[in-house]
């Protein structure tokens, strides 16, 4: 696959401040998720020629009363193999689960802003020299690991004007939490 | 060996959970979604506890939990939800329907083993 192109102006309702917050949430969640699987991901201004090594992309949609959209995470085969917690499980399956867990983390962060989303099931693309084109108002988040680049796109379509205000009184379960009841 | 049913549409998660629990001395059965999970619970009386994902195709984990717990025979069967979801309303709903716990992915292997050991002891 040579290119993935989108021409929709899907982010028309997200103001610059909210877009920055969404990107920061996506960047932090990506970093923390990969760290939980033993891979350090660092942000970069430009990961260079991404298409040279991106081999897998996980795509997962979400819906909700005030926000809907799609998350894409693309990376290299080597990064997936390094982070895969079940090494004999197919890489495509781990790509799907990684996209699912990334959006799950983002969902938990959005909940602290009183924004509820519901996840769909993920789709995986595999190819050579994948090129992810930036939307007009959504620039890809670029990061690198020792195994190559990672690219994340959080495409959002708010219903009206989006307001992202974190509420400290909203307690959301954190990754790794284990609750047991009698 | 105590048999633990792992219900998750991700083969990676099923394998990861299975590897951790087998090392801790458990026997593992697997189901790929809520329909498969409910069927395995009906058919296999040796299942001692269930770890169940929430977001799955066909029948999600919350609906599977509700369906399984509707049968009085499963009243004592411990079911723990294993998911990325940290939404308080969903956690409360699972508890109301009879779940014994809620673990948020990525899980810590030692906590998973401790939780399952406690449930089946």
Structural descriptors:
heterodimer; A: 182 residues; alpha+beta; seven-stranded antiparallel beta sheet; 8 strands; disordered N terminus; B: 121 residues; alpha/beta; five-stranded parallel beta sheet; 5 helices; 5 strands; 45% helix; 21% strand; globular
Biggest sheet architecture of chain A: 7 strands, antiparallel
* N-C termini distance of chain B: 12 Å
| Count of extended strands of chain B | 5
- Strand coverage percent of chain B: 15-25%
Give the CA-based shape of chain A: globular
Query: From the helix content, strand content and strand pairing of chain B, which structural class follows?
Result: alpha/beta
Choose one word for the global shape of chain B: globular
Number of strands of chain A: 8
Summarize the biggest pleated sheet of chain B. Answer: 5 strands, parallel
Helix proportion of residues of chain B, in percent?
Answer: 40-55%
In quaternary terms, these chains amount to heterodimer
Order of strands in the sheet with the most strands of chain B?
Answer: 2-1-3-4-5
Q: Quickly give the structural class of chain A.
A: alpha+beta
Radius of gyration of chain B: 13 Å
Low-confidence stretches of chain A: 1-13
Number of H/I helices of chain A:
3
Please provide a brief summary of the model.
The complex is a heterodimer of chains A (182) and B (121). Chain A is α+β, with helices and mostly antiparallel strands and 182 residues long. Chain A contains three helices and eight strands.
